[in-house]
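Methods — Computational structure assignment.
A single polypeptide chain was analysed. Its primary sequence is given first, followed by the predicted tertiary structure written as structure tokens.
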Amino acid sequence: MAAALLLREVGPIAWMTFSNVERHNAVSYEMWCEVPQAIARFDANPEIRAIVLTGDGEKAFVSGADISEFEKKRGSLDASTIYNEAVDAAYAAVLAAKKANACNDSRDLHGRRTLPGRLLRFANL
């Protein structure tokens, strides 16, 4: 199976699953590029109260970047710059979502008011 970023919404929870099981969920260039759009999609839905980032399968969350692509995707200075911009955009989107959720009128998954900054938590699921 090819590497993919799998998206789903279950009630107020959005799931972003990094799926590249054969490579311990190494993140492909295409997956890096999809993260900002996924965050924007979830952010546009007022029913979503949390975004969970997870890895497919039982072996790993994410092992890092898919280094098998480096020669092709980062083989020149220009290519490396483009690749790095995609990674930076993905990180920026996740951090923006974290900041927005932590600073808003915070509510828990059931819509009850909580203390500011209490919505976003990192947990091993």
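Note: The chain has three helices and three strands.
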